[in-house]
Specification:
The complex is a heterodimer. Chain A is built from no helices and 11 strands. Chain A is mostly beta strands. In chain A, the strands form 2 sheets. In chain A, strands 2, 4, 5, 6, 9, 10 and 11 form a 7-stranded mixed sheet that branches. In chain A, strand 7 and strand 8 form a beta hairpin. By secondary structure, chain B is mainly beta. Chain B is about 0% helix and about 55% strand. In chain B, the strands form 3 sheets. In chain B, strands 2, 5, 6, 10, 11 and 12 form a 6-stranded mixed sheet that branches. The chains are: A mainly beta, B mainly beta.
Chain lengths: ~110, ~120
């Protein structure tokens, strides 16, 4: 069966520090991968999605970047965090096939101080 | 353009009451897919159900039921005899059958079931 791992679960970082969040999927090949952000009490904002290695689509201009160095690995990064980067970050995957749902990781709660 | 509207921001019900969460979508695609997710206080989004645009048959799963009506572009979710464990934020989402890489989420409905 397929599983998704996302870490760390919580993170407190000072303003100006770098960020690296990692997500890996097991049990499937060539998944579509996604990064979402959820501000406190708000909806889901799509940040990036990837349909293959090295293929990244960015949905909003921001202080963040994403990379997909391996088929089932998706990394969210920042060189210098801003206070506004605080939020709940969710990685998700789906298989090819438009009827496939998104499957989410447990999320990372990031607080920038 | 694809859009999902969940007009109910917050709902509170007393335990054992029935509650319906509304979802209205917009799309020009003839083929599309609709989803419901539950986000409990722990934060993880849990997939509940998928419905294809060409299948308007309603579905029941235990205390949960879904009413899909293409004529009104709605995909409503009803919880019968609500329980405290149903307290969560519920999201409706749309995925295009033509350019299906993106999922379009509503803003969510926060449901509180009061014991």
């Amino acid at each position: 069966s397929q599983t998704i791992h996302q870490w760390p679960a919580t993170l407190v970082q000072p303003v100006g520090s770098p960020l690296s969040l990692e997500c890996t999927v097991e049990g499937t090949s060539n998944p579509n991968l996604y990064w979402y952000r959820q501000a406190a009490g708000r909806g889901l904002q799509l940040l990036f999605y990837s349909v293959g290695i090295g293929q990244i689509s960015s949905e909003v201009p921001q202080n963040l970047s994403a990379s997909r160095p391996q088929d089932r690995q998706f990394i969210l990064s920042s060189k210098k965090l801003l206070l506004s980067d605080s939020g709940f970050y969710l990685c998700a995957w789906s298989v090819l096939g438009y009827n496939s749902p998104l499957h989410f990781g447990n999320g990372t709660r990031l607080t920038v101080t | 353009a694809q859009k999902v509207t969940q007009a109910q921001t917050e709902i509170s019900v007393v335990e054992k009451e029935d509650v319906t969460l509304d979802c209205v979508y917009e799309t020009r695609d003839t083929t599309y897919y609709l989803f419901w997710y539950k986000q409990p206080p722990s934060g993880e989004l849990v997939f509940l159900i998928r419905r294809n645009s060409f299948d308007e048959q309603n579905e029941i799963s235990g205390r949960y039921s879904w009413n899909f009506q293409k004529s009104t572009s709605s995909f409503n979710f009803t919880i019968t005899a609500s329980q405290v464990v149903d307290s969560a934020v519920y999201f409706c989402a749309l995925r295009s059958g033509n350019t299906g890489n993106q999922f379009y989420f509503g803003t969510g409905t926060s449901l509180t079931v009061i014991p």
